[in-house]
Amino acid sequence: MLIRDYQDVPTQDISDLPGVTIRWVISTPEGARNFAMRIFEVQPGYASPLHSHYWEHEIFVLAGSGVANNGEKETPITAGSTIFIPPNAKHQLRNTGQSVLRFLCMIPTVPEALPPSHR
Amino acid sequence: MLIRDYQDVPTQDISDLPGVTIRWVISTPEGARNFAMRIFEVQPGYASPLHSHYWEHEIFVLAGSGVANNGEKETPITAGSTIFIPPNAKHQLRNTGQSVLRFLCMIPTVPEALPPSHR
C-alpha cells in the first residue's frame, strides 16, 4: 500500500502547454496496470488543448472553476464536478476563475496515453 | 461528455456495512469500459472491512481524516492523501475524525468488483 499526499508528488510542466502542470500520482511506476491517476493544475486564463484520442478520461474537479468544452458548447465546472469523456470525444478544460483549477484525471494505461518513461 | 456534480449521484447503502455509503459516479452504465469512479462516505467511528481481492484500488481522500490499515499497521490519512492498494493487498479505511471521511475510490471494471446491475 502506497500512501502519500498528492503535494509530495512533483509537478511537471507539459511541453507546448503553458499554464498547465501535471502530477503523475499513481501510474505504472507505482505498479498500476490498468489505469493511472494524474492531477492537473490550470492557471487562471489557461486551458488544455481542444483535442481527442481513443482513450477515455474520468475527471473529478478538486478546486477552482472553469468550463468544459466538447467542441460545440462550454459547460461550467467547479469543485465537485465529475466528468466522463468517452473515447474519441473532443474535450478541453479551461480555467475561467481567479484561482487555480485543480482536477484529478484518470486514464487507462494504454501506451499512447503515457509518457515514454511510464510505458 | 457527461458532466454532473457528485452530489447529484444518489448515495447507496452497502449491505452489512453500517456507517458507509457509496456513490457509483462513473461506471459501466455511463459507458466506462476500463475502470470506474466511486465516492465513499464513512461516518465517524466507522470503517470499511479489512479485506483483500485480486483487483487494485486507487484512492484520493477528499475530506475528513482517518487511518489506512494494511493488516499490520495504521497510517494516518487526510484530505489530499492518495493511496494505491495493489491487487491482493489487505486494506481497511477507518474514520477516526469528527466529520465524514469522503474519498474517491477507482477500480478496474472486472465483474467481481461490480454490482450485478453494472456487469
Structural commentary:
Two copies of one chain form a homodimer. In chain A, 0% of the residues lie in helices and 46% in strands. Chain A is mainly beta. In chain A, strand 3 (20-26) and strand 4 (35-42) form a beta hairpin. Chain A starts with a strand and ends in an 11-residue tail after the last strand. At the A-B interface, strand 1, strand 5, strand 8 and strand 10 of A face strand 1, strand 5, strand 8 and strand 10 of B. Strand 8 of chain A pairs antiparallel with strand 1 (2-5) of chain B, so a sheet runs across the interface.
Give a brief rundown of this model:
The first copy, chain A, has no helices and ten strands.
Descriptive tags:
10 strands, mainly beta, 119 residues, three-stranded antiparallel sheet, homodimer
